[in-house]
């Protein structure tokens, strides 16, 4: 075996070992920090709103949990197991204390024992789901009260966990419940559309669409940014980029080409398919973004600002800009487009499985559609007259 190949193999193995060791060290450090937080929680001062409150808050928690049970041994188990796994946990001994806390604090889950004096788990569930329907309630129950725990689901409880439980059982149950909650929220919430500053436009968050402040959006999903000298940089907007996904090539316009508003300006190519975008304004093509042409992956960070496709010396800015969207009107336009797009998906896809696969937006979704649906979407959203 050649020496350089042997050296390369040794280097790769060493790199893997180093990464593994660093990962283990970081995991141990995080666990040690959480254990310290857990110990500190045992000495929390009594709260006016919940005298039995013990609080363990970790940085960037997986979720915020409130546990209510009249048995301290159960609450101790919840704290020790869940805090070490990255959850922030508050514990109290009674239903009224739990109700007081949810009035002034935000939780993702409330775990409540079913059998408690003063206020049982059924009443706790009813009140929480009335005051804070966004909080998921999980019943802690023994074998003898499983039937009653199931009945609590009629009042909005998410699920129940049966005691006694092992550490692994509680962790698995809680992590699965968190996944269910996140999936439900993703389906309930519309994708967020927001105005950003240019430097913020590069930060991508799943389910979000950005429009930089001061940028005009056309109905064909190109954007236009007007410079002080009257030239206009043009590119594809975030709605188009996220639906298209990876872009294989751009067919740029010719320098000096005269174009009228709505006429073909440039084309995007993906998987042997082409989308031609009309010009948002009339004028003459004065520049081509050669840096973008050499590195199309830049568009994966943001389709705006430095990732413009071409520049136009506009002829009729005063009369044509009023037809473009900016600020709140652009946000409203995006939201309507998202609604129309999702309605189309549900109306045109035939089987329930197909609809389920497309029940939320994801990057590159357009390329996953059948060709006939792809053409309809392109005509409907990117080739408006």
Annotate the secondary structure layout.
Blueprint: H1 3-41, E1 54-56, E2 64-68, H2 72-84, E3 88-92, H3 95-104, E4 109-113, H4 121-131, E5 136-141, H5 146-152, E6 159-162, H6 167-188, E7 192-196, E8 208-212, E9 216-217, E10 222-226, E11 231-236, H7 238-244, E12 249-251, E13 258-259, E14 264-270, E15 273-278, E16 283-288, H8 290-294, E17 310-314, H9 317-320, H10 328-348, H11 352-357, H12 365-368, H13 371-381
Helix pairs in contact: 1-2, 2-6, 3-4
Tell me about this structure.
The N and C termini lie far apart (65 Å). It is built from 13 helices and 17 strands. Residues 42-46 and 198-206 have low confidence and may be disordered. It has 385 residues and is an alpha/beta fold. Strand 10 (222-226) and strand 11 form a beta hairpin. It has helices spanning 3-41, 72-84, 95-104, 121-131, 146-152, 167-188, 238-244, 290-294, 317-320, 328-348, 352-357, 365-368, 371-381; strands spanning 54-56, 64-68, 88-92, 109-113, 136-141, 159-162, 192-196, 208-212, 216-217, 222-226, 231-236, 249-251, 258-259, 264-270, 273-278, 283-288, 310-314. The longest helix is centred in the first third of the chain and has 39 residues, at 3-41. The strands form four sheets. A six-stranded mixed sheet has the order 1-3-2-4-5-6, sandwiched between helices. Strands 9-10-11-17-16-13 form a six-stranded antiparallel sheet. The chain has a three-stranded antiparallel sheet with strand order 12-14-15, with no helix packed on it. It has three domains: 1-34; 42-188, Rossmann fold (3-Layer(aba) Sandwich), CATH 3.40.50.2300; 192-332, OB fold (Dihydrolipoamide Acetyltransferase, E2P). The chain is elongated, with a radius of gyration of 28 Å.
């Amino acid at each position: 075996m050649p020496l350089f190949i042997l050296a390369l193999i040794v280097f790769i193995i060493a790199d893997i070992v180093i990464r593994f060791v660093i990962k283990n060290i970081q995991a141990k450090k995080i666990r040690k920090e959480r254990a310290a937080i857990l110990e500190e929680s045992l000495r929390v001062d009594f709260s006016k709103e919940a005298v039995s409150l013990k609080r363990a808050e970790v940085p960037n928690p997986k979720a915020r949990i409130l546990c209510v049970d009249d048995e301290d041994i159960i609450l101790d188990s919840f704290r020790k197991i869940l805090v070490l796994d990255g959850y922030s946990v508050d514990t109290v001994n009674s239903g009224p204390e739990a109700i007081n806390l949810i009035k002034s604090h935000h939780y993702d889950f409330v775990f409540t024992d079913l059998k408690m004096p003063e206020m049982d788990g059924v009443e706790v569930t009813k009140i929480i789901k009335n005051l804070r329907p966004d909080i998921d309630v999980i019943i802690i129950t023994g074998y003898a009260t499983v039937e009653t725990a199931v009945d609590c689901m009629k009042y909005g409880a998410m699920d129940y966990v049966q005691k006694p439980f092992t550490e692994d059982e509680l962790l698995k149950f809680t992590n699965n419940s968190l996944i269910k909650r996140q999936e439900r929220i993703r389906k309930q919430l519309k994708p967020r559309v927001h105005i950003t500053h240019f430097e913020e436009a590069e930060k991508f968050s799943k389910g979000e669409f950005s429009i930089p402040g001061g940028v005009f959006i056309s109905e064909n999903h190109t954007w236009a940014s007007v410079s002080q000298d009257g030239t206009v940089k043009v590119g594809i907007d975030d709605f188009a980029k996220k639906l298209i996904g990876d872009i294989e090539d751009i067919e740029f316009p010719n320098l000096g080409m005269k174009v009228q508003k709505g006429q073909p300006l440039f084309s995007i190519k993906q998987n042997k398919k082409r989308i031609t975008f009309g010009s948002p304004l009339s004028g003459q093509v004065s520049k081509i973004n050669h840096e973008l042409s050499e590195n199309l992956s830049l568009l994966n960070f943001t389709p705006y600002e430095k990732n413009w496709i071409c520049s136009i010396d506009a002829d009729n800015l005063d009369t044509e800009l009023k037809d473009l969207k900016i600020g709140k009107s652009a946000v409203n336009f995006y939201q309507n487009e998202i609604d129309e797009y999702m309605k189309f998906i549900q109306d045109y896809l035939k089987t329930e499985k197909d609809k389920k696969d497309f029940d939320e937006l994801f990057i590159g979704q357009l390329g996953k559609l059948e060709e006939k649906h792809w053409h309809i979407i392109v005509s409907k959203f990117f080739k408006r007259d």
